[in-house]
Amino acid sequence: ATPTAIMVGVGKGAENNILIKDAESLELGHRVNAIVLDKTGTITKGKPEVTDIVWESTEAGDHARGVLLGMEAQSEHPLAEAVVRRLQADGIRPAIIKGFNSLTGQGVEASDEAGERYFVGNSQLLQERNIALTTELEQQSRQWQDQVKTVVFFANEQQVLAVVAIADQLKPSSKAAIARLKQMGVSVYMLTGDNRQTAAAVAAQVGVTDFKAEVLPADKAEFIKQLQAEGKLVAMVGDGINDSHALAQADVSIAMGQGSDIAMDVAKMTLITSDLKSIPKALQLSRKTVFGIK
Ligand code: ADP
Ligand code: MG
Question: Belongs to which family (predicted)?
Answer without folding.
Answer: Belongs to the cation transport ATPase (P-type) (TC 3.A.3) family. Type IB subfamily.
